[in-house]
Structure formats: C-alpha cells, structure tokens
Write a structure and sequence with these properties.
2 domains; 0% strand
C-alpha cells in the first residue's frame, strides 16, 4: 500500500549515524574556545592552532551558503528565507549598530530621498 502524502514509512526520521555523531562530539570537545581566543589575539604565532581548528569546523558545523550583498536591492525574499534565525539576527544587529553609529541629521536626509 503506498504512503499517504506527508507520511513516510519511517515517522521518526532517518537514524543518526552513531560514528559520525561520536566524531562530531569529540571534535567539539577538543576545541578550546579560550585557547582559540588567545591564539587569535597573538597571530601569527597562534595561527597554527587557528588553522587546525578551522580545518575541523566543517566536520562540526554545517556549511553555510555565502550571500554577497552590495546593496539593499540585492537581497531577495528568497535570500532571507534561506538564512537561519542566527544569520537574520546577526544581520539585524549589524543594521541596528550601523544605524546607531550614524549622524541623525544624515539619516533624516537620506530617508527623505527614499520617499
């Protein structure tokens, strides 16, 4: 009997690969965030550790698609839908920080041009 739309023969989803999960957990445990911060501060001496960690990160974190934005007109609704909540939050924070950094009189003049 065929499956109904929206239902599968495996309602719990595909099982996680225990080996890959164990490797991912070990790599995550191995990364010392304090050592990484200290190494970043003293580059190039700490560069070796940073390079090693950066080579391990693809095995821990999902790869993100790069979105290059040169102007607000370049952002499409589809681009926003592809972004994670964290990426949208980071973009929002950058926009707010830039807005707060600017001179208010310049912002008012620029907004008049947009209307």
């Amino acid at each position: 009997m065929p499956f109904k739309k929206g239902q599968s023969g495996n309602p719990n989803g595909r099982p996680k690969d225990p080996v890959a999960t164990a490797i991912r957990e070990r790599i995550t445990e191995t990364i010392d965030l304090e050592k990484l911060k200290a190494s970043l501060r003293i580059l190039p001496e700490g560069g070796e550790y940073v390079q090693g960690v950066s080579k391990l990160l693809p095995f821990v974190l999902p790869r993100l698609n790069a979105i290059e934005v040169t102007s607000l007109g370049d952002i499409t609704p589809d681009d926003l839908r592809k972004m994670s909540e964290g990426e949208i939050g980071a973009l929002s924070n950058l926009i707010i920080q830039e807005y707060e950094r600017r001179d208010i009189s310049k912002i008012e003049n620029d907004s008049n041009h947009l209307q």
